[in-house]
Records
---
Amino acid sequence: MSGVGEARTVYRTCPLCEATCGLELTVRDGEVLRIRGDRDDVFSRGFICPKGSVLGQLHADPDRLRAPLVRRYGRQEEVSWDEAWRVVAEGLGGAVARHGRERLAVYLGNPNAHNLSPLLYNRTWVRALRTRQRYSASSVDQLPKQLASGWMFGSPTAVAVPDLDRTDYLLILGANPMASNGSLCTAPDFPGRLRAIRGRGGRVVVVDPARTRTADEADEWVAIRPGTDALLLAAIVRELVVTGRADPGDHLRAHVSGMDDLAVALAPFGADTVSAATGVSAATIRRLAVELAEAPSAAVYGRMGTTTVAFGTTASWLVDVLNVVTGNLDRAGGAMFPLPATGGPTTRGESGRGEGFRTGRSRSVVRGFPEILGEYPAALMAEEIEHDGGVRALVTVAGNPVLSTPNGARLSAAFGRLDFMVSVDPYLNETTRHADVILPPPSHLERSHYDLVFTGFSVRNTANYSPPVFERAEGQPDEWEILLRIGAIVGGIDMEPSAIDDAVLRGAVESMCGDASSPVHGRDPGEIVSALEPRRGPERMLDLLLRTGPYGDGFGASPGGLTLAALEAAPHGVDLGPLQPRMPGMLRTQSGTIELAPQQLLADLPRLRALVDAPVPPLVLVGRRHLRSNNSWMHNVASLVRGRPRCTLQVHPDDAASCGVRDGDSARVASRVGEVVARVEVTDAVSRGVVSLPHGWGHDVDGVRLGVAREFAGVNSNLLTDEEQMDPLSGNAVLNGIPVTVAPAG
């Protein structure tokens, strides 16, 4: 650290959304003086959004917890770390002793994906608990895409992203990257990249029930009825088949199976058949098929509007089917697969073939829903707590499921029935208010950062490491130490976190030395471990992954290759180049092909066909994004929530008239499971029959310590979402297309 009073400049990747923008921070004496975009960042080139500018405010937030809280006599009071660990040991240990491990549950929230320590150590500490009751934010977000990718390509990490910087035609469904900055598609300055497509003569088409900011910037907005994207995609694919335009291309033809089965299965989904159900004319469907087939290059990209619906997995599958049959998968300008510097399941093991993807190794107690990616759907949490013999203890990490998962009122009440609850979280929020112990991690600026997840969804291959900006307060453990200690306490492991870390590292090195595909195959594990000295914790694990990854030095096997030291010497990042074709080597299916017609997905098509004739509710609810918001976890920053109210109920003028509500009025919105009162915003930005509330609000509950968020509380849209409505293939919650009624609040 530099001398007292001396300002210094540091560089850091923003951890607040998926865009991974580079930031330049001016700091002094533990205070952030200024933040601006890093103009020399190899990926973002100076781009910054309003969220990136508030890292200093998050660090200095007086409501951010600096010490553990323990519940005593109905109130949560600050205690020492030693006292907190004693209460955790007594509480969690006692619950496991009384009830058994299968009555202990874990919930991992969205911020884990933005945080190096949990990404590296969650698997270790969660496995130490030895319970199958595992839940995460994945099943209210992207799980359908991972499931479809697993069945098609053999790995749930094999997610194709649009090659934005080279495409000539981009079809976007259910996504608003002008507000979200992109999701499952890491692209700093997504708005600039969209404008560049049009600037070079390309075309952007947006399919969405709402005229979003992205739709306003596009060449065309196609309004669609919520939840029917899978019908539209099926009809476009069928149109390509019947007109003879369906062709994977010379580069893929030999690596695709199931074309004939696909053609037969999609026969019932003609453009004329699905037009009324989707609200998209048959002529438009046919034209979109022709445009995709005839564009020099094209990519189809679907996001939250295609995954958080009743046909999320089927829609996610058909997005990539469309990329395949137009010849645009795995080629420049199409949908491509990143090659992250730390590698992953598609870079390890036998090239081009694997064990494939499977689910259902266990089932939930109440509904018997199959496990997917080692967890059960978050929509099942309440019922798994409520039933006789249900969950009695819970650990949450960086999540706020009361605001982010279906029927938040029922879930909140269920949390109140637990014997014991521990939360690793920097805030006393709507979920952690139920906790018996809250263990706060360091702030974003007190820990290192590397985007293990989002480099796997990136539109360009890059690598960027950020060391901590500030030292942790005395006695404050790092987050990986907190997590490993929880695992040790509950798992009955008599080891300090540092010793567990040593054991985890040794196991990883031994596995790599025994893997024929690894650059350290056959080497002495002790030699590799010694070469990683004197690092410890996340930095040591990250160095191992980088050095054995696709660009790594292989511990001397590839001199000049990537290492953590090389990233430390490159504060603006390392550019590893544009996306490159990866077929067929990245496949991990048993057949060694892209399986275009997985039986699980073909079997879902009769359910999809029934949607054509299903009755249409008069009004359905959808969510929406805003550039200054990311779920619920940045609503305590004044500069992000001030100004015109954003938690409003958007209603089309015709629907407002029929419901008897006016702009600025309060309206009562009701669903099968609950109701809220929200301020009305009358606008033609939503289609007729559609109303919209943003996600992640509703901070006006007792027991939270969020001064700013309570002032701008908004309403919790997930008091309206229905825990019984899930995509039956993935278990993903249905957060869009919820039948509701709207009436004056009275």
Note: The radius of gyration is 25 Å.
---
Amino acid sequence: MNNNLEVKARLIGILLLSYCTVTLAAEPISYSKDVKPILDSRCVSCHSCYDSPCQLKLNSVEGLTRGASKNPVYDHQRIKAVEPSRLFIDETSTEGWRKKEFFPVLNEQTQSPENAINNSLIAKLLSLKREHPLPDQGKLPDAIGLTVERSLQCPTLDEFTKHKKDHPLWGMPYGLPALSDTQETMLLNWLKQGGQTDVMQPSLSPLAAAELKKWEQFLNGSSLKQQLSSRYLYEHLYIGDLHFKGQPHTDFYKLVRSSTPSGQPVQELKSVRPFDGPGLAKFYYRLRPITSTIVDKDHFVYELSDSKMQRFEQLFLKPEFTVTRLPGYELQAAANPFKTFSQLPAASRYQFLLDDAQYFFSGFIKGPVCRGQASLNVIRDQFWVAFLKPQIELNQPYTRFLADNSPYLQMPASDGETIGFLEWREYNQWQRNYLKHKEDFNNNLQQPVNLNLLWDGEGSNENALLTVFRHFDSATVVKGLVGKPPLTAWVVDYPLFERIHYLLAAGFNVSGSVGHQITTRLYMDFLRMEAENNFLKFMPINQRKNLHDSWYQGIDLKIFNFFETPTFNTDTEPAIRYQSSNYKQEFFQSLEQHLGSASGKPDLINRAGIKSSPQQLDVLMRSLADLKGEEIAALPEVSFLRIKTAHPEKDPVYTLIRNQKLLNVSFIFGENLRREPEKDTLTVVPGFLGSYPNIFLAVQQQQLAGFIDQLKHSSNSADADLFYSVYGIRRTNPEIWQYYDFFNKLYRDQQPENSGLFDMNRYENL
């Protein structure tokens, strides 16, 4: 009886939808005003960036008209590199994309209302969801795969009949509730009217146009010193979203190389890497407005202002040095910044990176390596980062030292796509040679190892200390020391900072071969170990081996000798008087005090000993943060928790980060074999952290104590299922879109310039 009523209700809904579609079809529908808001709020949640399913990017009209592809961007079995398929760069016409094997999702045949629906994959996938809705409670059926590495079908129009038969539950939005009737009607009517787009090229305000012209003039200066400095700035800033200080929070730009000068339409050069040859005798650095909807997973902002231009002049143009020649673009040299920019003062290059350290660390994370557990398991789930300070008095000898050792600082991109395991062994030896020479150089300086060696943020720059969180196959970096004292910490110097950028950002080819990808991952092992060893030098000599061994458990170096950590200095005792045996914690507490306001806001939830608020909510959140091991076994890596109050628009939100403990991070595969779940910890952060929420949670404020207690006792699957049935916003929950909208709006209100839409590709079926 109930089943019959359900079938009748569905049929009535389909008939009503068809009726609404017919009666509303005469109304003119605007893509920008009516359609784009629906795509942004529902479809872009999965379809954006490199990890967009079937390469269907719906955060711009160019992506919509480009369509989809069966060719994956991320392919860990690709023997040879393939041509990249970057929107706005590698092709700009629909015809060109069809030649690159992209197929349409909109009607491209004779225009008629009937053809518009019958020849549109979007219409067919929406109808599939309407005909075969998901359950409205409980977990999703197993037939709906949700792992990032799942095999995607990507059916063409001709293949859709079979696809519908084989996968009836795969309608869009995939693995989520259907659009509302109003939203679906709007999209279908727009398609019937021909799917026209009324998007105009953005017109710059007079103030924005003036800023753009000023910066393009600065970046295209004619002197050799200006040209070399601009190349350095471009190779570091090209990857992020640039913003003019004081301009609207929604206005961002990409720094590109163009064949056309300032004042003419941008014609971006199609180089795979920023240090590839331009192919032209004369090119120009240009700022191209970003027209795509901003999504958090690839959005990190570098602010341009008059004071920033003065800083560039202070670092790169005013110092007394001479550029006698401009470097070329031959790959082996261009991929090595210590050769390319050997004429620029090392202290200036380093200070440029330090000024906005969080931005550059975000580039390592949100750039082309924005997906892949095999890439990100080179780092721990949580660690703290400090930086050695630039020493102007050592500028000349240090610059000369880097130039002399540039052959040992060569990185995998120097060998292009042909690199393999044998070449990696050579890089291993170069790294050891460099570390020996660096140790000799530092020993000759005879500097005491104490807090004065570390960058103090010039008294106010909160980039001086960073926290990195890894969320299995994504990551986040924030300013300050967040969470409980981690297992490991890094101290980064200039060559390390520069090499990480040229390894994971400038030199990484997301369309590259498996050899390139694996070697990149293995080389990052060197850099992580070097950063950890720099930190160990601040620890007492008799503690260094114990600390180091605690990071690399379960490795038999007689078998896996390639993964042995290069020797670290054990001869020099640090000039630090420790008062306790908890050396790591005491070191960072002293460093925070030493840095003052540059150390960032104190973590009042996760760290004992910090003066905390007596408010009941804060007390409960601290008790939540104290859970560990089996007590947090039910949680995924990233959870957004909404505390529901009598004023919904003011509901507090927290991010729960589960930090998974591993015996070591020295191997690409077999991570489950190295897990120590009983040592997992929880970090609780007010607001938002992470681009890919794994679950939304909601609890009435007066029930928060019960929430914490139930989570604490949900270590087995049955108890976890009960926990999520009460507090989880599951994929089947009809209210999930309301929560998604709420979190996005609150994030935008809290961080209007740095926020973007959250991604639902990692939302789990809990």
Note: Residues 421-445 form the longest helix (25 residues).
